[in-house]
Amino acid sequence: MKNYQLYQNFDFTQLDSPDFKEDSVREVLILPLLKRLGYGDEQIIRSKSLQHPFIKIGSKKRPVNLVPDYLLQVADNYAWVLDAKAPHETITQGDHVEQIYSYAIHPEVRAKFFALCNGREFILFRQEQAKPVLYFALRDMADNWEALSTYLAPDSFQIGKTFSYTVTKATRGAGVFDYLNRPLLAEIEVRKRAAKRHFGVHGYFTKQSWNVVQEYIRHFSQAGDVVLDPFGGSGVTAIEALMTDRRGIHVDLNPMSIFIVSSLIAPVKINEFSLAFNRVKTEYLNHVPQTDEQIAQALSQYPYPHGLVLPKNSDVTTIEQLFTTKQRAQLAYLKHLILQEKNQAMRQSLLLSFSATINKINRTYHHSTYAGENAGDSAPMRYYRYRLAPEEVLLDVLKTFEGKFNNLLNAKKEIAPKINADTIDQAQIVQGTATNLAFLKNESVDYIYTDPPYGKKIPYLDLSIMWNGWLDLPVTAQDYELEAIEGGEHHKSKQSYHLLIAQSIAEMYRVLKFDRWLSFVFAHKDPEFWHLIIDTAEQCGFEYAGAVKQSNGQTSFKKRQNPFTVLAGQLIINFKKVRRPKSIMKAALGLKTGDIILQTCEGVIAKNHGATLEQINDELIIKGLEMGFLDLLQKEYADLTPFLLDTFDYDKPTDRFTLRRNTKFRTRIDINLRIQYFLTSFLRRQATEQNTPTFDEIVLHIMPLLKNGVTPEHQTILTVLEEIAERVGEDGWRLRQEQERLF
Questions:
Q1: Mean pLDDT confidence for 3-10
Q2: pLDDT tens digits along 646-662
Q3: Is 577:510 a contact under the CB 8 Å cutoff?
Q4: CB under 8 Å to 85, separation ≥6 — which residues?
Q5: Looking at residues 286-306, what average pLDDT do you find?
Q6: Are β-strands 184-185 and 366-368 bridged in parallel, bridged antiparallel, or unpaired?
Q7: Whole-number Cα distances in Å, 127 to 324, 501, 585
Q8: Alpha helices in 359-432 (DSSP H)
Q9: What is 187-267+418-581's CATH topology?
Q10: Which of 82, 103, 478, 513 could form a Cys-Cys staple with 68, CB 3.0–4.6 A?
Q11: What is the pLDDT of residues 31-52, one digit of tens each?
């Protein structure tokens, strides 16, 4: 018998009888439905008594009991909850819906779905959504069985994951490319400066590591496939797609982003490009405004941006105040000469070097003292605000422009074999919003790799005024309205940011083909944003496939300035678009959230002999994603920093949290990990004090710290000691050099 023929022999007119009550609905209609979905007797929990978590009655505050008809269990967690009602009762709104919702959110249940059935109708809600996700008459089961089983069958849920990782070399063999069953990539070593096309051409506020992006593109797609980045930024995804023989689609709201990418990939003949630069250079040297009179004349003759209002946190009010009078005059003249070039690709490419020059020729330019005057950045790129430099560094305009031109020339040479006049139609560069990809058909994209804005971290449009102004790139009120940020000059709310991110994920789902992947890069501390992404992706139909920790390479200036508010590194969350996606169940936790946090922190600290904020944050986010308690993190631990500083010691030179000196682990950590941690800490400290402790001294020191659970034998301590340390003399010990380097 087919599943949708479940009620083919049931006479629905029986529901009109006063004798067909709630108990009949349960046993005659609901129980067969649960069995047909695949639930065994041990998974169907009937009439479990729950204490109401908030309400008590009477002067003695007696607890109120809640008794759901059915709790459906998968892998020892409650996947969904179902209540039966009599056929004459309404199940679409009112008290019944509120009652079943209270069961679903109960701390002992935490079910993702809740449902009601009165024998005539079945209605299913998802906990985070106000509207039902499924509503149908039971007599129409044939038309709704597939959707019902997709949501509620036992194999539609996942909790915890067993991942397989690979390096990309292992995936490049011959044979059929299996899109769906790709293993996750292990963390990739960053090689930021190895590609001329991305390093030194033009700055941007954030930039993904090109080789990481390229490996993901190679791993999750094939040559000829369509690769999309709807938050394109500096264009790394689209450019690496083209470099690997894919079609690249770059979408961004910021016209500066569109200008940078389209100018970089604009095909030019190298010799002619050099000649164009030399024409501009010669003319500039002959007539560069130097004297006060020449500067005044240039400012009256050549256009420059003025009157554009800067964000309120800027040190000056309008764009022209970001430049000295001489800088304005010389930049205006240089731009004028570039615009005289007749070939559009030449003109656009030279303007790219001009735009990169602006990053250094302005009053916000902060040079890096350790690397010379010409190795700095403008304040918008470095501090994310228009902050005037405490010491003005007035670089030569032409020398700076020439350096940027040479960088671009090298980039053009590097990409020419792959990105040229014959292949440029493989690129699609679109100014627009990720919330509306209407120019793309349903299921037309093979892979998405994207790095969206992180809440209030960077107001891209506000910070791009200096470049968009000089390049005559308009930014409209609608652009600001559609920008997915929190805060900024237009005071965008957190709710607005959430809505725009949710809409963009829905559009990504629409355009992606089935059995294809979305890699979503995120580096936010607040678990609320992670919860938003996961929940929205699941609501759209994506299946969570695993998250990978990924370094950004060199620690950024912002991280050094703000060690507790900026994360160095990111997580790459991977989703699959499949026809029967599995939902992440919310774990019914035996421990309090604080205990889980502490256990996770101590585990990471033990494993790494001290852990950075990033290591702890990543571990918690991944564990929260996979075990379904991310919603609890967002409520109670939006910022881990106060908890970490109150609980552990912080070593500023290494950015690591460690156990407070001479204290024990408070949670259950593997005995060998505990021994290794305490041995490493003690031997490092002894080495700093130029001591070489004996085995007896080591045992006497660490044994009191290990009396947490099983106390190890001396032989166990010696075994671990021999793995990480070496003998000195007859009975002295010191850490092996590789252990020191590892730390």
A1: 77
A2: 889 998 888 889 888 87
A3: no
A4: 22, 25, 91, 96, 116, 117, 118
A5: 97
A6: unpaired
A7: 58, 20, 11
A8: 379-382, 397-415
A9: Rossmann fold (3.40.50)
A10: 103
A11: 999 999 999 999 999 988 887 6
The rounded distance, in Å, linking the Cα atoms of 158 and 466 is 48
More confident position, 709 or 619: 619
- Write the CA distances from 304 to 259, 307, 330, integer angstroms: 18, 10, 10
% of the chain at pLDDT higher than 90: 54
* 222 and 256 Cβ atoms separated by less than 8 Å: no
Q: Are strands 77-84 and 113-117 parallel, antiparallel or unpaired?
A: parallel
CA distance 501 to 154: 30
- CATH level 3 topology of 3-158: tt1808, chain A (3.90.1570)
Cα Dmax for the chain: 102
Every domain of the chain and the residues it spans: 3-158, 187-267+418-581, 270-414, 593-742
Q: If DSSP codes are grouped into helix, strand and coil, which group holds residue 243?
A: helix
pLDDT (0 to 100) of residue 680: 79
Residue in 406, 339, 331 with CA at minimum distance from that of residue 365: 331
405, 409, 412, 413 alpha-carbon torsion, rounded to 10°? -170
Range among 81-85, 620-624, 644-648, 693-697 rated most confident: 81-85
Residue 368 CB contacts under 8 Å (≥ 6 apart), including other chains: 375, 376, 377
Sign (positive/negative) of CA torsion 417, 419, 424, 427?
Answer: positive
Split at pLDDT 50, 70, 90, the class of 740 is: low
**Average pLDDT over all residues of the chain:** 86
Residue 240: pLDDT above 50?
Answer: yes
